Amino acid sequence: MNYLKNFRSFYGLLAIALVLSLGACKDDKNDDDALSLTVSETAAAVRANTVTVNITGVAEAGVRTLTATPDGAIAEELAVTAGNNDIQTTYTYIIPANAKLSDTYSITFELTDQASQTISASTTISVEPLLAAAPDTYSFERDGSTTVSYSGQNERLDMVGAIKTYLGQGDKKEITISAATLNAAYANTGDNGNGFFDFTSTKQLKDKTFAPDLDNNFMENLFAGAEAVSQSGVDAANGTAGFIERENSGNTIMVDENGREFTQLIEKGLMGTVMYNQIYNTYFSDDRTGDEVENTELREGKNYTDMEHHWDEAFGYFNPPLDFSSDWPEAREDEDRYWSHYSNVVDPFIKSNDDIMNAFLAGRTAIVNNDLAGKNTQRAILFEKLELVAAATSIHYINETLANLNEGKIGEAFHTLSEAWAFVNALTYSPNRRITLDQIDTIKETDFGANGNFWNVTAADLNRAKTTLVSIFTELEGVKDQL
Amino acid sequence: MKYSLLALLVCFLISCDSETKDPENPDKTVDLAELRQEIATHLTNDLILPAFEELNQKSLSLSQAAISFKNDMNEDNLAELSTKHQDLWICWQRTSLYYFGPTVNNALRASLNTYPTDEEKIENNIATGSYQLGSLENQDAEGLPALDYLLNDMDEIEPLSDFSAARLNYITVLASAIQNHIATTNDAWNNGEFTQTFSGTNATGTDVGSALGLIVNGIDLHFQRFVRDGKVAIPAGLRSAGVPRPQSVEVPYGKYSTRLLKTALVAYQDYFNGKSFTRNDGPSLLAYLRQIEQADLADRIDNHFTILLDKVEQLDPSIIDQIETDNEALIDVFLSMQDLVAIFKSDMASVMGISITNLDNDGD
Prior knowledge:
Chain A is an alpha+beta fold.
C-alpha cells in the first residue's frame, strides 16, 4: 500500500515541476511590441481521457497564428482571430489509451504576431492512475462488471482435491487404488477424468505440469507405486513399500520402500509441479505478464485485458478468500486452499498472508493503471514471498518430524517428512529460486535420510536441513524453532 | 497456533494484574514478568545446565567403561560397565523432563531411551555390522535399553566368552553414540542461542513460545507420554485392554525400573519446587502459583507428589515382578499420576494463562 501513497507524493512533485516548467520564453530578437503566452498547468488525466490546456496570450502587434505541437507530431494550427491582441482559448489532448502510468507528453505552443515575432510555451501532461489505491479485496471492475476470472484454476484445484480424497480412501484400505484411474484423472480424459470427477471441465493438470517432471513421469510413477502397495496390502518395512499406521489416528498410509507417503507426494507434489510451476513459469513469465503483453484492448468477448487475466490466473493458483489477510480468523480457515492454506499455517511467524495478498492487490492495481514498473515490483515480491512460504512450510514439517522422531512415532514421522519433502521439492520451480538445485537435492535425498531413505533419518540430518534452509532464507532464522 | 489468540487474550487479562501483592508481605508488589524471568533463569542455570553437565560426565564414564571392558573382558569390568550404565540411566531421569529446546531438537530421548528395545534388530545389527544409529529405523536398537539387553540379560552373557568381538564392538559403538548424542545436546544447551532467548527475551511472557509456555507444555507432553504411559500405563496393560505387557518396562533385565520411576518423580517434584543443588525453593512454578494467590493449588501439587512417591515406594524394585505379584498396586500408581495430570494440566495451566498446544495432530 505504501507505494500508492508514494504515487500521490510523486504527483505532487510533478505538479510543482509542471508549474516551474510553464514559464514562457519569449524570443529575444525583437521586443518592439509586447508579446506573451501562458499555458495552463492542467494536471493530468487517466489514460484514454481528455486533458484541456488553457491558453492565454497578449500580442500588441496583433496575433497571426497559434500552433500546438505534441511530442513527435506535426504542428497543429489552433483557431484564432487574426489581428486580435488578446488570445484566450483552450486546447484538448487525448491521452493515448495505451499510455503507461510513467509516460509524459509534452506539448509546445507557439504564438506568432503580425510582426513575425514568436513566443512559445509548453505543457507537460502526465497520466493519472485509474485506481488511486489498491482495493482491500481482490475485486476489480470495468463498466460495472468484474474483470476477474480464474475458473480454470478453481477447477484444477478441485481435481487435486478429488485425487487426494481417492488416495485417502486407499490409505485406509477402503478401496484398491488404480493407477489407470489416477492417470485418467491427471489427464482429465473425456473432460471428466473418465468418470472420476463429479464435474466436467476442459482443463487438466497433466498439461500444466513442470516439463522436466513430465519427462521423468514424476506423477505417473507415484500412481503406479500407490497401486502396487494398495494391491499388495503388505506392511511397510525398511526397503519394502507397504502400509504403515499413523500412531495418532490409528489410520494407515501407503508408503514406498523408502518410507515416503504416496498421498502427500502426489497432493503436495501437484501443488509444486502444477500450481507453483504455473504461477512462476507461465503467468509470471514475460510472455504472460511482461511489459509487452496486451493491456489496452480487451480480449475478444471478455471484460479483461490479457495482462489482467494472466495476473488473475496466477492469483487463482494461490486461491485465497478475496479478503485474505494476516491473523486470519480461525472460523474462516476452511476458505483458504492449498498454497493460501499453507501461507496461513506459517502466517503467525512471517505474516505471509499480508505480504502476498498485498502484492497481488497492488500488482493488479498497477496493471489497471498500466503502471508497468509497479507491476514488475509486485511480481518480484511475489516470487520472493511465495518461495518463502514453501521454505517456511518445509521447516514447519521438519520441526513436526523432529517432534515425531522424539516420540518414536514412525508413521507420523513418515507423514510429516513426506510433506517436508514435497515442500522442499516445491522450491525447485521458481526460475528466481534463492536455493540451488543441488541444495534441494541434498536436503531431499540425503538430509531426509541417507540414501534417500526416510528409515535412515536422524535428528542431526533434520537439523542439517534446517540449517541449510535458514542460511538461505535468513528471514526465517528467528522463527526456525517456532514454525 | 490456533490458540495463540486465546493465549494473547489470557495473557492480556493477566497482564492487567501483572503486579500483585506479595502474600508474605502485603506492602510489597511483585512484578510477574520479572518473576517469570527469574524462574527461567533459575531453572536454566541451577537445574537444567547442571543436570546436562552431570549427564555428560556420566556418559563419558560409560563410554570409557565400555572400552575398558572391550580391551579387558573380565567380570569386574563387566560389573563396572553395568554400574556406569545404571548411573547414566538414573541421571537421565533427572534430565529428560526438560523436554523442549535442544533436548527436542536433537531428539535425545528417542536415541537414548526408546523401549522396549528390539532384540532381534540388535542381533541383526551385530551380525551384519550395517546400521545407522540415531535413525528412525534403529531407535529401538540403541541407547540405554539396548545396553540393558546386552549387559544385563544374564541368560545371554554366561559365560563371558559369549561376548563375541562383534558384540563387544556394538556395545562400544552404542556407548559412544550415547555419549555423542548427549555431548551434542549439552553443547546446544550451553552454547546455543536457545538458552539465551529462553532465559532472556522469551522469559517474561506467557505465550506459546515463552519460557513458561515451553516449560508447561514440555511437562504436559513428557509427563503423560513418557512417565505415566511409558513407565506405568503401558506395562500395566492400561493401553492394551487390561492385558499387562511386562516386557515393555523401562529396564526389563536390570530390574531397577521402580528406582528409575521414583527418580523421575522426585526430579519432577524438584522441578515444580525449583529445588536445585544450591536452593530448596528457588523461583519455580509453585512459587509462581503462590504469587498469583493460588497457594492452595501449589500445596495440592506438592502434596500430591509426596502421596504418589509413597505409593511408588511400596512397589517391588522390578516393575515386572510387581505386575506379576500385584498389578493393582501399579494401576493405583497410574491413577494417582492421572490425578496429578488433571491438576497441572487444567488447573495450573489455566490460572497461569498458558495454553496447552500438545494436541495430537491428525490433520491432512
